[in-house]
Amino acid sequence: MSLGSVKIATAAAGCQAFRFRVRQLSELSILTLVLLTVTPQAAFPQNMMTASSSGGGSRLLSSDASILEIEDIKKDLPCTVTSVKPVLGFDLRFHSGYDITLPLRELSGEGGNLTIVLKVTPDTAKDSPIYFSQRYTVPAIEEDAKGDAYLQGSFDLGEGDYHVMWMMRDKLERVCSSSWDVAATLPAKDQSMKLPITAHAVEQSDLEFFKDEPPVTRIDGPETLRVKVLINFAPQKVNASSMAPVDTSALVSILRNISREPKIYKFSLVAFNMTDQKVVYRKEDMEQINFPELGKALAGIKLGMVDYKKLADKKSETEFLSKLIQDELGNNSGDAVIFAGPKVMLDHPMPPESFQELADISFPVFYMNYILTPQQTPWRDAIGTVVKKLKGQEYTISRPRDLWNAWADIMGRIAKTKLITTAAASKK
Fold first, then answer.
1. CA 406 → CA 146, 254, 333, 398, distances in Å?
2. Domain ranges of the chain
3. Predicted local confidence at residue 49, as pLDDT
4. pLDDT digit string (tens) for 217-256?
5. The domain at 19-204 falls in which architecture?
6. Which of 64, 172, 373, 408 is deepest in the core (most CB within 10 A)?
7. How many angstroms separate the CA atoms of 2 and 419, rounded?
């Protein structure tokens, strides 16, 4: 049976499970339980089910099992739950879930727990539902508390139709429960995309963006490639104080997509941040991109804080980017250079003469320009301008299919250039 656990934040929003309109709940602590592992045959006769020793403790009460089984819709605990329509992320997984609104006065008292249990059943496997469990610790709340508490949960789906039965129980054993159907469907024009999650599968949402990538079997032969990636790890909103999870997810997904290409046997990666105006991570000729190491390096970025000297120098951004491009392209010995990241709009354009030495480069240059709403900034940015001067290709990445199609085109162009270069060299 597949295993899973409800996350306390949606993949798109990445926000905390509780958000509050009043000050007194700012101290709310959240505990996410380990996954709840039960089978329909074994769960219901027992009072409670303990999880395996490898995961800690999680228990399913027989009363909860009964509500989930007969789909008893209760409102003893007056909450409102709204289903979240499955959305295909840049990681090519469907992300679904729910939003909950609960009046604060219903949580009043000396504190307690809220427990959520979720049952997700694929239409193709109605006898094998997947269960999730989640618990929240609530602090003391005044009886006349105003406003609402908001909770969110998420889970991932493969293509298919599903039925969801959801319930939440408080310390007084009051229950709020609901059910709904969801469908995760790829449009006809996206059917060529291969999703990493199988059809009719239900899995936990994972917000650990920089976990290790499984090893890839690389193709060995003359067609193997070496590529250099220069990625601007920065939010789309220039003045943002932190990376939005949707931005991090998209940029990491671009990197993972590149890292999974079996024809590439060596990667050089340069991660930089235009706000800090510095390179935060650099590794040459890797057989595999080290995502945990990259994540640690990026954790040191302090968005919203700019060195005073750089702030006073209006041309510092231009100078940083110009030197970075000159150095990395001028010293490249691989088969291609790929830029990726959000648009970089400079106050001062980079002087054309600074790239004259790069005019005769023999390798192709690409730019995967990540921007969710391209219509808001339709003009070409600084990196796009350089790529155009170098006769490279620029791709707008605003949806998962854009990433899929762009990468297919990039690989075709790199392979073609490598073939021509190899053929020309053999004739000498």
1. 50, 10, 23, 11
2. 19-204, 225-426
3. 33
4. 988 877 899 999 999 999 888 777 778 888 999 999 999 9
5. Sandwich (2.60)
6. 64
7. 44
